[in-house]
Amino acid sequence: MGHSHNHSHDHGHAGHVHAAPPAGGKFSAAFAWGIGLNLAFVVAEVIGGLAANSAALLSDAGHNLSDVLSLALAWGAAWLAGRPATGRYTFGYRGATIQAALLNAALLYGALGFILWETIDHLRHPEPVNGKFVMLLAGAGILVNGFTAWLFRAGQKGDVNVRGAYLHMLTDALVSLGVVVGGAITYFTHWTWLDPIISLGLLAVIAVGSWGLLRDTIRLGLQAVPDGIDLEKVQQFMLAQPGVQSLHDLHIWSMSSDGHDTALMAHLVRPGGADAAWLANLSAGLLREFHIHHSTVQVEDAELPDGCHSGCAVPAAALLAQH
Fold this sequence. Notes:
5-stranded mixed β-sheet; disordered C terminus; Cation diffusion facilitator family transporter; Cation_efflux_TMD_sf
């Protein structure tokens, strides 16, 4: 039985291109600024929160610290993604961005649990809060986090790592705005119970706002079909190619947190096999129609004796008849 293989890495121009992302990623300067500014702000908030006896400030500082760790992990993963492939790591280190995103999600929710414990303790034993000092520090937080979010705005739609940084910073800016409002109310009303209540509200906002990021990183880790790609439409496209009788063992996944780093593996049954021109045309079509940059296709001239290995075979006539 003859087998033809195509492993195309077409990135929009001629030849087989295996270019890795730039070392440190395109947002190295943004990561550096974000880490430096937020680390300095964490120190200021911890000192201010203890001095002002503010649970809201301390909770905000804890979340900002988790953001510093998150940015550092994401930056390190971006640097690894730019390293060349090796004999053992033949895909390179692009998957490090997915691992970093998963770890960041775990760190975030761990920090939220710790802050929740501290906030409940402040709620049970409320103490006077220096509202003016709280407003001053939280106001600085709006500027720090707002500026950092702005640095990542350009890349937040294409990379879950960058989107995580952007959402964290944008959320923090909104959280700081809430702390300012709470500090103002506390300053004029002297309601000592209000500060931990605001802290609980901020924790809820952060947890809900981070859920989408956690869901996306889990999907990436489990090698799910990327958002924006319809598996059935890919099947239809491949089965519509000249001479194809059936399709099996089709897998589509992201190789990194970058949504533009999508891979495909599939087996096609096509009597007579396939030549290089046919395979190149198929690969170009997958890139053009679905933005799949890495396609590995095995063409078989007849059905395998033991059938498909992981996924049911799809006959061309059966699927195309449904549409």
